[in-house]
Hints:
Elements: H1 2-16, E1 22-25, E2 39-41, E3 44-54, H2 56-65, E4 69-70, H3 76-88, E5 96-101, E6 110-111, E7 138-143, E8 151-155, E9 161-167, E10 171-176, H4 180-189, E11 193-194, H5 200-212, E12 224-225, E13 234-235, E14 260-261, E15 270-271
Parallel strand pairs: 5-9
Antiparallel strand pairs: 1-10, 2-3, 3-9, 4-9, 5-6, 5-7, 7-8, 10-14, 11-15, 12-13
The structure holds alpha-D-mannopyranose and calcium ion.
Amino acid sequence: MLRLFAFLCLLVISTTYEIRPIVKDGLPGFTDVTTAPFLKIGEGYYYIETVLTKNWFEAYETCRLIGSELITIETIEEWLLVNQYLKDLNIDGQPYWTSGTDLANQGQHVWFSNGLNITLDEIWYPGEPNNKGGNEHCDQMSFSKDNNPTGVNDYNCDGAFSYICEAPQPKTAAFIVWNWFDAYADCRLIGAELITIDTIEEWKLINQYLRDMKIDDVPYWTSGTDLANQGQHVWFSNGLNFTLDDIQVNQIMMEAWNTVMKCPLPTMVLQLD
Ligand code: MAN
Ligand code: CA
């Protein structure tokens, strides 16, 4: 019951303090957020499939499955960088599907991902697009007859080729959160303290709750600290040593917490006596 009340407090607090995210483009340098399976080339994030081959539609769907689309070349810089990357890895010269197509209006090639015309004339392989046999409506890049130069070529959409997926630009939602002292002080204001994990059952229940509420992807302050004796972590609320060896109490350090971070809720869990 008390525990339920504590959770309600948590919810009340998170709505009381209006937490407004600041959404920015890109990923901040201080995080180690993984972009896998996408790798960063220039400003873009790509997944380069070099082994599997699929027709254009299937390749597109495969990219969609991982939240991306077939590659769209927006600038000459992007074109040069991606090609240089393929070259460095010795995986150039083999065609990769792009999002380019003229399936909608024959002769009018667009990037299917954004509907914009393909305006970078210089990326086409010399003589392309030629709609050979009247049946070429999907565009592949890194097409080459003699491995040099490479370019974009229109081809039969049913052809099986490798493909390059491009992920949307990542965004970072930043929230101002409490540092440990602020968090503790706010708990004290309502007669509570930062959470202390007394039993393994409590640990499991809290974690289950966070998982159920889908708020377990951010760290939460606990009352744990070794500010008094470095290396000796105690629960600040009762002064007792950590004895539950199998709990992984993370993020009990002070550093960098009074900065902005990615977090949808205030970073504390309350527990009432
Ligand atoms: C040649 C060129 C290309 C065409 C392919 C089809 O390489 O004519 O334009 O797409 O053949 O195999
Ligand atoms: Ca062609």
